[in-house]
Predict the structure.
Amino acid sequence: MPTPLPDSKPAGGTAVTPRPRQKLVWIEVARGIAATLVILHHVSQHLSQELGYVPFRRALEPGSAAVDFFFVLSGFLILHVTQKDIGNPQTIVRYLRKRVLRIYPIFWAALLVFIAMNIIRSNSPVALSPAAIVLEGSLWPVTSGEPRIVGVAWSLSYEIFFYLLFAALLLHRGFGRAVFALWTLAALLVSTGALATPSNSALELITSEYSLLFPLGMAVAVGMRRASHPGSRSVLIIALPALAVTWYLQSAGHLEPHGTLPRLTYGVFSAMALYGLVLRDQEGKSVSWRPLLVLGECSYSIYLFHLVGVGIAAKAISVLGLYGEVPAFLLAAVMIVAGLIVGVAAGLIIERPLVRWARRVA
């Protein structure tokens, strides 16, 4: 998922020297790991379809919960980088411009790639009408379960709606708080079954259990304003095992993959882990292994483009007749590496130049 662009201009548009901001390197590492976990999830799904049964499918499927971490992280980062603008409506246009420039150009590049792939495929289940392409390009939510041209686009629709709702805080602090309180309450009532799920796709998205994750990240940003904090190790020693246990419970079939309980469970422990990682950055703990930082820098591209690499590897495996002939874990490894290679390449070749351009024009 994308990292917000740093502020470099005041509301009036006159360039100033940006205020130094501590780079959250441990957050960067976590983003790269989370994007890799999403690949594990998709590879497990693909192999189970091809082979009928994969021994480690259940062990890899919870990788989809990395999206929960991304949503918590988005809530934290947006409030963290814009908190000085809360209640200042003059900053709304600049804020929205930064969000658009960070999300859409790279997504449109991925959209073009997936349109081409679906044209090549003879049995594509995705509609490629002009209306469908425009709808996908806007990231407007579609009916739940409807196939997307870019498979992961559904999660970016949540991001866009969160960004739009967050603008209410910039417009007026009190009004924004009321909007978030009502949004959280509506999501709670619908996700727990107290209210019926709306038939409108946009309202269905806003009131989904996934919407409960963004406020958790915002709570971490608010909590970081406290004068004193525990050590990062004491927080992470609770949060990381808790996430591992939750992962195990889902893989063992004791926790459903969908619904309010798993979202809040992953969400709360993701927020704890995020808190510990931010503390680790504040303590000056460095990350010396460069590949982890590269994965983090390219995490948005990995998230968008990894299915291209997985698809290419899967096609090669099929053409070579390796399904059923080579151990499943080796096939999985090939697909995972292919997804990472394509994602990192897209990050370095497409995303990095676009981010630099966006920082200049934002």
In short: Residues 25-361 form one domain. The two ends are 19 Å apart (CA to CA).
